[in-house]
User: Fold NAD(P)/FAD-dependent oxidoreductase from Lentzea tibetensis.
Amino acid sequence: MTERIVIVGGGLGGVRAAERLREMGFDGQVTILSAERHLPYHRPALSKQVITGEWHPDDARLSFDADLDAEWRLGTPALSLEPDRQTVWLPGGEQMKYDGMIIATGVDARTMNGAPRHDPRVHVLRTLDDAVAIKNSIRDSQGLVAVIGGGFIGCEIACSVRHLGRDVALIARSPQLLGGVVGDDIGKTITDAHRHHGVRLATGVGIRHWVRQPGGIGIHLSDGQVFFASCVVLAVGASPAVEWLRGSGLIIEDGILCDATNHVVGAENIVACGDVARWPNMRFNGALRRVEHWLNAVEGGRAAAENLLIGKSAAKPYTPVPRFWTEMYGMRVQGAGLPVLGKDTTDVNGLTGFIADGKLVGLVGLEAPGRIIVNTPELFRQNTVELDRPAWTKPEQAPAEPAPAPAPAPEPAPVREQVPTTALSVPPSVSSSMSPPSQRRRHTRSRPETVRSGGGRARP
Assistant:
């Protein structure tokens, strides 16, 4: 029987994992299950170019290898999993067997207790359809747009609404926007920029209650303020998309529990990557955490695919230094590491450095791309890990520290290679149907027919 790897999740992490499988010479069947009806797209554009209308939704489509020869099952969410039988259940009672699985389901947007979520004027932002709905709601309404949440997404949406010339209120529980993520100084600069550009800020407040009326929605705040909005966007964080794993026997508290090498704890031949994976990054104290950054989906997807193929015994610990960025009003904020771990801050060549236990654990800079690039390797130098300690594999064990990762680099160009495997077989040579790297085509909007949905074939 032809070996099959099922990738659950059709976003960035899933497609980069699929590419890595083919680069390593995997010639079995690759099936990608996606709850969404769209091919992969750039999520960072949703809160910016898509909402403002600068991009048509198709312009957000992600470029990926057209030679994947994958079976795309769009609009087909995984409903449940039986790891012991290596079976995933799909809509209509369909059962799909797998030899290996990569879980890349990402996160779902959170809502708020008491918020009238089912009112068509109240939105969340996670998917392309969400972004289009918000764009249309802003276009079709005339009054205030209220954004709830002072994190990255909330701030970006408020900026986009002002870009459209619309009145917007930004309501946040924290006293300062992004303060806990980027530091007080940069947080204050971002807060002041929103105020300077006409955003009606309400910070350090909660929401007492909501009042739905024909002309809009009343938002009553804890400090007595009341906003009356014709469109509301809830940007209050995200939750890992693991509901389909309930009853599977896997540990899914705040994401799916993985060991240091992306392998899912308590299961065979399953790895996870991206926002949904909760794993111990031993470069940063080994505590279990998830990382919701674009680049983690890229790097984590590739690492998970590789570790699935080579098996647990040869798998490499995944120890990245996360990087992130955002842009508002022409100002670019960039960061590296895990600033949230910092107990103190210090100046690092004009950047905000976050310190924990005497080590540099994060850097954030405003309009300082060159300094971020130059100083990020310091995170690797200080947060080194030992070479001769095994990867942590069980939740009751104390995390061990793996080998150091290389310095950060842009998303790597695909290279086909042969890697010894133990878990899943890889053919001794790459199939002739797989063109060399210099000739590989990238899937773009101009060639949608090169990637099939709902069909496909196993490699010969």
Remarks:
- Confidence is low (pLDDT under 50) at residues 385-460.
- The first strand starts at residue 4 and ends at 8.
- The two ends are 12 Å apart (CA to CA).
